[in-house]
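Before relying on records like the one below, remember that each one covers exactly one chain. Contacts with other chains, cofactors or solvent are not represented anywhere in the record.
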Amino acid sequence: MSPRRSSPLYDAIGVGYQRFRRPDARIERMLHEPLGHAAEIVNVGAGTGSYEPRDRKVIAVEPSLEMLRQRPTDSAPAIRALASDLPFPDAAFDAAMALLTFHHWPDPAAGLLELRRVTRGPIVVFTFDYDVHSAQWLVAEYLPSMLNLDRDVPSPQQIAETLGGGRVHVVPIAADCVDGFCHAWWQRPQAYLDPAVRAAISGIARLPHDVVDDAMARLRADVASGAWNRRHRELLAQTEIDAGYRLVVVPGA
């Protein structure tokens, strides 16, 4: 399947993505540390390149023209291709990254095998635990329809096993996280009322508009009345939480 024929999701929902999906320094440190001294890195499902190391040679792989258009002019060179059909020889890279992209791959298993094939060193996959994700208030209280998305995506443990065995780490999400992925706003519910914020969250952007509009009307009322604060007063006292995000680190082949 060519990138053109695959009609990438982000060609439709990725407009304005770069505005809210900015690298958070705390997450960036977790992502970069396992790369060690790798000099040549492939970033598969690279999007706008938020977490690409600036001090290494990076090749980005991204199927969406919309996402490629939003990459900064000084970012790493990018190739339009699918994870399941990487245009590189075996063991071409010292390390690989796949960051909050795995759940969008048309063929996740094939993509992981390709990732391992082209990488001789460590592989870093930033993903999420479906069960923990599903328990977060945004999903459980307002958008339960999100439970129908990504239900069959392999778990972090299964990702590690497919890649040859590795470790799974919890990625804590700070209350002031600047990367606007799905649960980044866990202590700032009013942020979800902004359509531009929601457009940068694929789990919301993939839902029917009427479902989202109804949920946001209820959230707006709960924020205005103080009901959200009363229900979640324990969250307001925390500086970071486990919102389900996981880092899979697999050593070299």
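The longest helix spans residues 209-225.
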